[in-house]
Specification:
Largest sheet: none
Distance between the termini: 47 Å
Helix content: over 70%
Structural class: mainly alpha
Radius of gyration: 20 Å
Order of helices and strands: HHHHHH
Length: 210
C-alpha cells in the first residue's frame, strides 16, 4: 500500500485495523508532517506582508527547508512500513531446532535494529521542524501564531511517539550496547526538543489568552 499517497480515510481505516502497518511509527511520521505543514502555513501567511518585510528573506529560506522536511516525513511513513516487514517475517520464523533458533535470533536482532532507525530519523526531522517553528512563533504573522503553536504540539507529539517505537524494539534486542545507544540518541532528542515544543505552545497560548 502506498501510504504516502493514500487518502486520509483509507489510511485511518488501515491504521485502526489489525494490519501490522501502518503502525505507531508511520502515524508519528504523519503527525510530524502535519506539524511541519502548519509551519509552512504560518510562513505563507507572513511572507509578502509589509509588517514582516524585514524577516522575509529568512522566512523564505525556512519555507524551502520546511517543504523538504515535510516531504521527508511523508516518505518516512512508507519507509517505516518497509522496515517493519522484515521484523514481522522474523517473528514467523521457526525455532524448533537449535539451528533454527539461532538463525531466528540473528535475523530478529538485525530486523529490530533496522526497524529502530526509521523512527529515529522521524525524531531528527521533527526536531528540526521544532527549531524552525520557534522562529516562526516569534517572526511569523500574529494572525497565524496559533498555527505555529499547533505545529509545535504536533511535532512534539510525533517526537514522543517515534521514541516509543524505538524503545519497543530496543527492549527486545540481545545486543544491549546497540540498544542503549539507540535509546540514548532518542532520549537526547526527546529531552531537548520535547520541552522546546511545549514552550512554544505555552508561550503562544499565554499570549492568546491575554
Amino acid at each position: 500500500m502506498d501510504f504516502k499517497n493514500t487518502n486520509c480515510q483509507d489510511f485511518l481505516d488501515r491504521l485502526a485495523s489489525s494490519a501490522p502497518v501502518p503502525g505507531g511509527g508511520g502515524a508519528a511520521a504523519l503527525v510530524g508532517a502535519l506539524g511541519t505543514a502548519l509551519g509552512q502555513m504560518t510562513g505563507a501567511l507572513t511572507i509578502g506582508k509589509k509588517k514582516y518585510a524585514e524577516f522575509e528573506p529568512e522566512l523564505k529560506s525556512l519555507q524551502i527547508e520546511l517543504q523538504q522536511l515535510r516531504q521527508e516525513l511523508s516518505e518516512l511513513i512508507e519507509k517505516d512500513a518497509q522496515a517493519f516487514e522484515p521484523l514481522a517475517e522474523a517473528y514467523r520464523l521457526p525455532k524448533d531446532t537449535e539451528a533454527e533458533r539461532l538463525h531466528k535470533e540473528a535475523v530478529m536482532e538485525e530486523a529490530l535494529y533496522k526497524a529502530s532507525l526509521t523512527p529515529l530519523r522521524i525524531m531528527e526531522k521533527c526536531s528540526r521542524s521544532i527549531e524552525i517553528l520557534e522562529v516562526l512563533a516569534i517572526k511569523g504573522s500574529r494572525l497565524a501564531i496559533s498555527d505555529a503553536a499547533s505545529g509545535a504540539s504536533f511535532c512534539g507529539a510525533a517526537l514522543q511517539a517515534a521514541a516509543l517505537n524505538i524503545y519497543i524494539n530496543t527492549q527486545a534486542m540481545a545486543d544491549r550496547i546497540s540498544a542503549q545507544e539507540l535509546n540514548k540518541q532518542a532520549e537526547v532528542l526527546l529531552n531537548e526538543y520535547g520541552p522546546r515544543a511545549e514552550a512554544i505552545y505555552s508561550q503562544i497560548a499565554k499570549q492568546l489568552k491575554g
